[in-house]
Amino acid sequence: AQRVTQPEKLLSVFKGAPVELKCNYSYSGSPELFWYVQYSRQRLQLLLRHISRESIKGFTADLNKGETSFHLKKPFAQEEDSAMYYCALRGRGGADGLTFGKGTHLIIQP
Amino acid sequence: NAGVTQTPKFQVLKTGQSMTLQCAQDMNHNSMYWYRQDPGMGLRLIYYSASEGTTDKGEVPNGYNVSRLNKREFSLRLESAAPSQTSVYFCASTGSGASINEKLFFGSGTQLSVL
Fold it and tell me: Which of B36-50, B63-77, B97-111 has the lowest mean pLDDT?
């Protein structure tokens, strides 16, 4: 069975401070990992995916297969980063959708 | 560019009433999904349709039925609503579903309250 764990329900940091949202996964094969974000009153949208190895809005995430983690990081938080963040996994099943973590509510304080 | 469109945006039902949530996508996607979002529970998959003509159960299918009406539309039906079905419902779609790298496109959600 595949599982995604986000240990923090709520994370509050000050503007300009570094941010790390934790994500651990459980899957027997080689999954693809994603981070989705939901800003207030907006629909859920893709932030970044492991395969692209990209930096979006200053966020990066590195897949650590040894620790089965895919933590999301940003060196300097901005107020507009406040949102709900979901880590998600897709296994080799492909069309059967994503398995989401329970989400972390990130609050950036001025 | 409508993307994924869900209706209605809000709905209040009494216990035992039935209703259908509608979802349509205009991106010619093969795979469509219904998720529910609950505080502290994240998003959980209710049902999905890998392609037109097929539907499969997800993690929490009990109390729901779905219909893949055509390639564009995927509806979710509550036959006899229960308070436990109070939630925000999201429809999503993706291209072929065959590649694990594809991203999901989400609708704006339906906030359902069952009294």
Answer: B97-111
